[in-house]
RNA sequence: GGACAGGUGGCCGAGCGGCUGAAGGCACCGGUUUGCUAAACCGGCGUACUGGUUAUACCGGUACCGCGGGUUCGAAUCCCGCCCUGUCCGCCA
């Protein structure tokens, strides 16, 4: 959430920001409603102050009269009752006015709130302007020694690559038919060595971030209240991307939502809290199952492990002091962790600076990491895929946008409460990461060479052999 | 799922219609005393919004005692709904 005070002072900054992000928001309407609401609130406060004053003044008198009434004679009773009625009538017109103001404010408040929640965080000055993801800017690339991404896979390795779906099927690593049978399109099961590899990747990544680096290991709820989704900025804009558990329709309780990322649980954890400043920065990592409806993606990436409704992800989150240099420093740090991880996995990757149009509503800045997937991309004349980059990681820098929504603060040196800054980045999401892993490490005989860093997690297995093909 | 008990400031905890933004204690900050530490004593110490002014300094107003609504001239206090926590029973990975 943005700071409405800054919006009042400089609406153009936010209008420009929304425009750059290609997001349509009614900022003038919000300002108008805001002004009305403020003016009504001011009136209400004045009336309330008056009401309190009167109450304090007549209260003791009423008490006294009521006391007298108890032991009063018949003729006195009448006089006392008249007096009482007079006193009690005094604030009644005020009361009516306050009630009417209450009602008017109550109708404005939901609109005000909804509009405010929709205002995107303006992109940072140094984020390149762009119209779509096509305008993202490559920052750098890396590839293992001896592999040149600008050349075809065959030129690099001396044989044509098989796309991951073929490899998965040949090696019996996943079962799509039965996944679909049970749960519908975009569902799957990891099977046998596929599941071993999937778990090995997750465990390797989790150990890397929590042991090699000092991120605190966490488990998180993945079924969460709406407040967590709104607080982390996934709602209201992305509401249709989340599975919705309508518990309220069963008569009691509240609805729940399935998280699309562990970030929701890691950030929601500190909602409404004032964190000790000396605990910052808080660095946490979790491995959790993620659920995405992929609404609006019908027909895209329908085959294979790329775009699925359920997957597992190791996620890193940092909550730090509200200083731009700090935010930027940690952003760089989070990216370098992932680069080291991918280098150990011997996977070619590139860093992409997302342009304004590709940031999403909540980010001031976002850098994606894409891995080289030889089986993707257009087909060449000889029927071989050209290979393409595919997004595997996304590193967001949000300033206080999330913490403001979550009401997550710390106390600074002067004793003021300050909204913290937050950042998050993928460490590793599987099975999507298995696509580059399988495709890059496939060998001519159809086997897969397992990168060394995974050997301990594969019970010493170094190669996935085709003849190990398993069928249930 | 059933039956009780309860949700008050950073924490513990009193209040149960007006004198309560809220006793008391702990923690924290400043000071006095002290060879140092500790102790003792004195003082300070919530958040948000809003007005006086342009400012995190000062003064005023409003709201906040789980959340929402109601009763009342007036609600932390009474009533209703919801959420959450604890204990016991039932069920169960």
Describe what this molecule looks like in 3D.
Helix 3 (27-70) runs antiparallel to helix 4 and helix 7 packs across helix 14 (434-441). The chain is built from 14 helices and 18 strands. The chain is elongated and about 115 Å long. The relative contact order is 0.14. 40% of the residues lie in helices and 18% in strands. Residues 468-472 have low confidence and may be disordered. It has 472 residues and is an alpha+beta fold. The two termini are 50 Å apart. It has helices at residues 4-9, 11-20, 27-70, 74-89, 92-118, 153-157, 164-171, 176-183, 193-212, 226-231, 263-268, 324-344, 401-406, 434-441; strands spanning 137-142, 174-175, 189-190, 216-218, 223-224, 244-245, 256-258, 274-275, 282-291, 310-320, 349-353, 365-373, 388-397, 409-411, 417-419, 421-430, 448-449, 463-464. An eight-stranded mixed beta sheet has the order 1-11-12-13-16-10-9-4. It binds one RNA strand of 93 nucleotides through helix 3, helix 4 and helix 5.
Write down the CATH class of the largest domain: Alpha Beta
The portion of residues forming beta strands comes to 15-25%
How many domains in all? 2
- What does the largest sheet look like? 8 strands, mixed
Number of helix segments? 14
Rg from C-alpha positions?
Answer: 30 Å
């Amino acid at each position: 959430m943005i700071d409405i005070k800054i919006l009042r002072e400089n609406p153009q900054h936010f209008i420009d920001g929304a425009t750059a992000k290609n997001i349509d928001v009614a900022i003038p309407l919000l300002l108008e409603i805001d002004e009305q609401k403020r003016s009504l609130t001011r009136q209400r406060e004045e009336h309330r102050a008056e009401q309190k004053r009167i109450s304090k003044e007549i209260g003791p008198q009423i008490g006294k009269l009521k006391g007298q009434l108890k032991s009063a004679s018949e003729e006195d009773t009448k006089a006392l009752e008249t007096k009482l009625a007079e006193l009690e009538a005094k604030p009644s017109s005020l009361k009516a006015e306050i009630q009417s103001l209450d009602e008017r404010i109550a109708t404005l408040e939901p609109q005000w709130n909804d509009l405010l929640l929709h205002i995107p965080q303006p992109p940072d000055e140094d984020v390149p302007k762009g119209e779509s993801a096509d305008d993202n800017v490559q920052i750098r690339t890396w590839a293992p020694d001896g592999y040149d991404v600008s050349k075809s896979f065959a030129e690099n390795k001396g044989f044509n690559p098989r796309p991951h779906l073929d490899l998965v099927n040949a090696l019996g690593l996943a079962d799509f038919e039965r996944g679909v049978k049970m749960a519908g399109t975009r569902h799957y099961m990891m099977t046998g060595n596929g599941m071993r590899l999937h778990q090995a990747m997750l465990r390797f990544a989790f150990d890397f971030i929590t042991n090699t680096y000092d991120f605190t290991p966490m488990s998180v709820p993945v079924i969460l209240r709406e407040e967590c989704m709104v607080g982390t900025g996934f709602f209201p804009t992305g509401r249709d991307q989340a599975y919705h558990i309508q518990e309220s329709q069963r008569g009691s309780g509240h609805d729940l939502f399935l998280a699309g990322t562990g970030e929701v649980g890691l950030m929601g954890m500190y909602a409404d809290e004032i964190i000790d400043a000396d605990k910052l920065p808080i660095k946490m990592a979790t491995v959790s199952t993620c659920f995405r409806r992929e609404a609006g993606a019908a027909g895209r990436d329908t085959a294979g492990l790329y775009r699925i409704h359920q997957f597992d992800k190791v996620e890193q989150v940092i909550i730090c002091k509200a200083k731009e240099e700090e935010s930027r420093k940690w952003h760089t740090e989070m990216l370098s962790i992932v680069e080291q991880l991918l280098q150990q996995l011997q996977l070619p990757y590139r860093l992409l600076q997302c342009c304004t149009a590709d940031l999403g509503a909540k980010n001031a800045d976002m850098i994606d990491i894409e891995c080289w997937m030889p089986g993707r991309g257009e087909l060449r004349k000889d029927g071989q895929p050209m290979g393409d980059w595919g997004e595997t990681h996304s590193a967001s820098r949000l300033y206080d946008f999330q913490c403001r929504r979550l009401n997550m603060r710390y106390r600074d040196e002067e004793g003021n409460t300050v909204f913290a800054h937050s950042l998050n980045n993928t460490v590793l999401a599987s099975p999507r990461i298995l696509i580059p892993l399988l495709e890059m490490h496939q060998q001519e005989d159809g086997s897969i060479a397992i990168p060394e860093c995974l050997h301990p997690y594969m019970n010493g297995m170094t190669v996935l052999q085709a003849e190990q093909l398993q069928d249930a």
